[in-house]
Amino acid sequence: MHPMLNIAVRAARTAGNVITRAFEQADKVEIESKGTNDFVTNVDISAEQAIVETIRKSYPEHTIIGEETGQHEGADNDYQWIIDPLDGTTNFVKGIPHFAVSIALKVKGKLDQAVIYDPIRGELFTASRGKGAQLNGFRIRVKQNKELTGAILATGFPFKKKQHMTAYMSMFQALFEKTSDMRRAGSAALDLAYVAAGRVDGFFEIGLKPWDTAAGELLVIEAGGLVTDFTGGHNHTQSGNIVASSPGLLKEILKDIRPHLGEALSK
Ligand code: IPD
Ligand code: CA
Ligand code: CA
């Protein structure tokens, strides 16, 4: 295993322990609102601190960007870690056991290492640039479907940005008419990991943040899939509008998304 992936795995497991311990004592979790339908708990923050500490111990020079604690500038900006310490906070707060730790490393602006860890199921998804993607050490691959017929797509609702509801619902309707079914499980990181593992055929969501998607993007690519924005371009890190699936199915998904791109979504 690449030494930097090894550190990412160590950090993810440490954060996972913080999260599962707290999940068993839900009455002690402190919840605060960050914005409309957007919550943070003391557990998100402790998990992020544990990850930052683990990375800092081995790589004090690297830059770290965390959802909860912001940017920790290091002397070396070529190495950037992008962290979501707890993806699926709403599930966590409600007692739904579906959430994950997501850690990615970019080297000179390119995704290089990725870990998504589901601490409840003990599932560790990993990827290294050019080396494929694994689940608990076993190779995973994106399902190479070319058609929406029979496909299951994962998605997320724009619950923090309800101004996108009309556009989203139109896309959903167009896709739902053709697919077998949809899943809204509540963790974008796990949605992407499940695309990589071939558990779902594709994924789309509006307005995600870089820490929601960085690790998942590398997993999908290394598992033989594609990740684009809603126009088929590569602006998804900026826009947060993301589609992931096999290359063949992605074309079909975009056909049903494109007609509903409003002003706000076309960028
Ligand atoms: C959220 C989850 C959710 C997605 C949201 C994200 P958080 O992340 O990934 O599935 O629909 O857009 O913000 O806030 O739980 O880290
Ligand atoms: Ca997230
Ligand atoms: Ca989070």
TrEMBL record:
Keywords: Hydrolase, Magnesium, Metal-binding, Transcription, Transcription antitermination, Transcription regulation. It comes from the Bacteria. InterPro entries: IMPase, Inositol_monoP_metal-BS, Inositol_monophosphatase-like, Inositol_monophosphatase_CS, Inositol_monophosphatase_SuhB. Its EC number is 3.1.3.25. Its cofactor is Mg(2+). It catalyses: a myo-inositol phosphate + H2O = myo-inositol + phosphate. The keyword Transport does not apply. It is an enzyme of class 3 (hydrolase). GO terms for molecular function: inositol monophosphate phosphatase activity. CDD domains: IMPase (cd01639). Gene3D superfamilies: 3.40.190.80, Fructose-1,6-Bisphosphatase, subunit A, domain 1. Belongs to the inositol monophosphatase superfamily. This is Inositol-1-monophosphatase. The gene is suhB.
